[in-house]
Amino acid sequence: MVPLLSRLVGDPVILNIAIVAVAVASTMILFRPKVANAITWRATTTPLASIIGSGFLVLGPILNASYGFYAPLVMAALCGVAYLFGSAIRFNIATLGSSPNHREPVEQVLETISSWSLAFAYVISVAYYLNLFGAFAVRLSPFDDPVYAKLVTTLVFCVILAVGWFRGFKMLERLEYTSVVAKLAIIAGLLVGLFVYFVDKTVDGALVLAPVKRTGWDAVTLAFGLLITVQGFETSRYLGAHYNVRTRISSMVLAQTVTAAIYVTYILLLSYVFDPTRYVLTETAVIGMMHAVAAVLPLMLIAAALFAQFSAAIADTSGSGGLFAELTGNRLEARHGYALLVGVGLALTWTAHIFEIIGYASRSFAFYYALQALIASVSAFRHKRDRLRGGLFLLLTILGWMIVIFGQSIES
Asked: Is 281 exposed, middle or buried (0-12, 13-18, 19+ CB in 10 A)?
């Protein structure tokens, strides 16, 4: 093992080949029929696709610059909070599965409000996804400028509206598994490259203990504003047409466990090898940072970002349009929902910075999670044996509202 690492560290060509080889091997494994056709894994790919997006790439530089050597702990805390909100949604999945027609009127009202809030959260999240798409699309081109990035975002919004309005998204949605495999394979290569770089810095005694820039309440409210980067697990709840209750709950747990392991490992390897004073904090800062690790990584990460953001934008656009149609009894057609989404998305694109959009998206999903936790709390208190969980869900409701009210963007 040590001789192999020595060769990887000492020879950039071998390291690049190793990174690509790991990505290819990961792709082959994930496309094996036994893996690809496993029911729980297939169900897991939907929340996995939503959780792991380019937010994964944006998050590394943000946490390193803001929290310094505490960044891995903050990442673990974000994953922990997301898992707790997931527990409330899993409780609701189980409750609906056992007694779908026995909900109290207050629960039904909260569920309706929750669905509306999710529809509007999707509207903001698509703006977040496609603004990252635009930023990464121009990053290594001669047109690496915010205006050109916004023009790319605008063009993609128009394409999505045209496809959704005239054709629907069913064909594009079939690419979801391919997109997930591509992202996971590239992330596997990234982690191998970062691990080798981390070992190299450790051997040279050159690890970095970056200072903490954000402290106290300021640090907490910034973390609130980053919730969107671990969002997406809630999609398991809406797979009832394809999977049973047990599979949907298992899919959410597996997706959150896998992503937490990936996120924490990534932040751990990144935070102690890069000095945040040596890079400019932008949404694509990780591309410049990875140049120091391996020449092949920037291109691979841009490919991963484009795959991730486009597929996530399609999924959320489709989900938003469908929710608007369902909630209005089809008085507002799905394609009209797409038009609303694109209109709001373009307004955000040209009036807000990407870090502001991240903050808006985090608060919009926190609103949805708070309502889901409140529904779980009301339901749990109706059963004496679940009162302890009812209290936990009530605390999560309060936490969700705090994120809505106090969450801030990185530039605040």
From this structure: middle
**Per-residue pLDDT at 375:** 92
Give 52-75 pLDDT, tens digit per residue: 876 777 888 999 999 999 999 999
Contact 264, 78 (CB under 8 A): no
Geometric angle at alpha carbon 324, from 323 and 327, rounded to 5°: 80
Residues 305-344 have pLDDT tens digits of 887 788 778 777 777 777 778 788 777 777 888 888 889 8
Q: How many domains are contained in the chain?
A: 1
CATH (domain of 194): 1.20.1740.10
Could you tell me which of 80, 303, 275 has the C-alpha nearest to residue 186? 303
Q: Could you report the per-residue pLDDT of 108-140, keeping only the tens digit for each? A: 888 888 888 888 888 888 888 888 888 888 887
The answer as to whether 412 is a domain residue is no
Burial class (CB in 10 A: 0-12, 13-18, 19+), 147: exposed
87 inside domain: yes
Q: Give the SS3 label for residue 127.
A: helix
CA distance 136 to 90: 34
For residues 62-93, one letter each, b for 16 or more C-beta atoms within 10 angstroms of the residue's C-beta and e for the rest, the string is: bbbbbbbebbbebbeebbebbbbbbbbbbbbb
74: in domain: yes
Output the CA torsion sign for 180, 186, 191, 194.
negative
Tallying the residues shown for the chain, one arrives at: 412
Residue 34 domain boundaries: 2-406
SS3 at position 261: helix
In angstroms, the CA 337 to CA 340 distance is 5
In a domain, 411, yes or no: no
CA 382 distance to own-chain centroid: 33
Q: Please name which of 55, 157, 77, 101 lies closest in space to residue 362, comparing C-alpha atoms.
A: 55
